[in-house]
Amino acid sequence: MDRLLRTASLLLDRPNARRTSLVLIGLAYVVFGVVVVTRAELPKRKYVDRLRYDSPMQIDRRGDRQARYYSSEFRGFAKQAWGTIVERLDPYDPARFHVRAYPPFFNIVFFPFAAPWRVFGLGSALYYTLSFGLGIASAWWLTRWSDGEHRFGKFVLVLVLMAPLAADAIARSETDLLVLGPVSAAMMLLALRRRCFLAGLLLGFAASFKVLPGLFGIYLLCTRRWAALAGMVAGVILCMVLLPVAVFGPQRAWDLHLSWYRRVVAPYQTEGAGAVVGNAARPSNQSLTGALERYLRPTIGSAAEGGHVNVASLDRKTVRRIARTAQAVIAVSLVAIWLACARRDEPPAHEAVLFATVTPGVLLLSEISLTSHHLLLIVPLSAVVLRACAPGEVRAARWTWVVALYVAGVVGVAVPQVKVLTPLLPVTLALLVGCVAIAVQDRLYGAPMPASAATSS
Fold first, then answer.
1. Residues 202, 241: one domain?
2. How far is C-alpha 367 from the chain's CA centre?
3. How do beta strands 67-69 and 43-46 pair?
4. Which residue in 222, 228, 173 sits closest to 206, CA to CA?
5. Among 89, 318, 427, 430, which residue's beta carbon has the most beta carbons within 10 A?
6. Closest CA to 356 of 408, 287, 433
7. 203 inside domain
8. How confident is the model at residue 62 (pLDDT cuts 50, 70, 90)?
9. Residues 351 and 439 in one domain
10. Looking at the predicted structure, is the pLDDT value of residue 48 above 80?
11. Nearest to 60 by CA among 47, 93, 115, 209
12. How far apart are the first and last CA of the chain?
């Protein structure tokens, strides 16, 4: 497999392949954009000749008698952002909104796309452009730490591997690219040891957007990346305190965060993710907790969801205890690995693979890891692939079989009968173990130096 990956990166780096790749990316932006904007803006069915709405709050609401819309998160996000900022409503009021787990800062981020709602397709097209651009940029950032040889070919290779999950997230106007982009840029900066404070700011944005990426803070603490940790703290303060106070005012910012805590954080802590997002055992939840719910509880899935797969019928408390014990073991193990493998002035190859252990950890420690969330797997996958493409690299080459497992998992989640089996969980575990194994070997036997440095020495 490592030879195949090296050959692919070499072929994709040729001038004709470069031009073809750029043309295909441009065509994909246009064609896919039409699909995404249509899905976000046009209804499946109209019940009236002319649609008349006075506010985004009226679009696609329960009991809408004007139209039935396609499945897309854009209208729900726009409705929440508009209602929170313009109409000064509580986004965590279940009587008005579908309550989402995002903190109040999310509404500030999304409002620029909700503001031009009267101009057909403008807001969704802008959001699509941002998401598509972040997807391309993420693939480029994830390759920047590697040696310059065949870098464009490696970029296209990473882009192809991430395309299925990225396309699924973008098609439904999900927010996962807004997390992957900052994480990818931070990985590049930290691996190259450049602008570490900025890298921390980016991770602070990701942690403020979706709380669990706060695990990166523990990583930075364990690896003693003080400038990045300071940047992350500054980013969280900026996003969670200063911006909400500036936009909402001190009192309303406090009220919104208090409502978020009462209706999202507190129920999550006491009753689990099901209290916030509904059925945590649904097949789209590919997390460790979701898998244990489906396999160990008397859960009966519908035929459309692939049926039931439970092998035991334990009570809910027992299953939750098993899940939390497994997550505690993973968390403690990660902290131990980060403390043991962190060293100053390590080459980018080691820094990248150690950083890459965080994203599978995020997915495994979260009770809800939906299919689109597993777009973050491209971070450890790219680390393994790029290291395997390096001449003479043996450690990562042993783990390139994970690429085939990843492809099988991505295909599997598209089939209901396979999706219910949680095919992305073994991919997540394999990538975590693989990156940890490579990082430990680097610590014991020394990390590979860049080819340029080895040549100069």
1. yes
2. 14
3. antiparallel
4. 228
5. 427
6. 433
7. yes
8. confident
9. yes
10. yes
11. 47
12. 31
To the nearest 10°, the Cα dihedral for 416, 323, 175, 259? 130
> Are both 205 and 331 inside the same structural domain?
no
* Residue 453 pLDDT exceeds 60: no
pLDDT band at 97 (very low <50, low <70, confident <90, very high): confident
Which tokens is 312 given? 């035991």
Among 271, 306, 333, residue at a domain's last position: 271
CB 207 within 8 Å of CB 232: yes
Domain that holds residue 361: 280-448
Give the predicted TM-score (pTM) of the model. 0.90
Q: What confidence score (pLDDT) does residue 116 get? A: 92
84: Cβ contacts below 8 Å, ≥ 6 apart: 90, 91, 104, 107, 256
Residues 120-137 as b or e (16 or more Cβ within 10 Å = b):
ebebbbebbebbbebbbe
Amino acid in position 156: V
Q: Give me the residue label for tokens 């976000």.
A: 40
Q: Is residue 288 part of a domain?
A: yes
- Label each residue of 291-313 as H, E or C: HHHHHHCCCCCCHHHCCCCCCCC
Q: Do residues 135 and 375 make contact, with C-beta atoms less than 8 angstroms apart? A: no
Evaluate whether residue 91 is within a structural domain: no
Q: List Cα–Cα distances, 65 to 41, 51, 54, 77, 277, in angstroms.
A: 16, 10, 14, 21, 26
Residues in the chain: 457
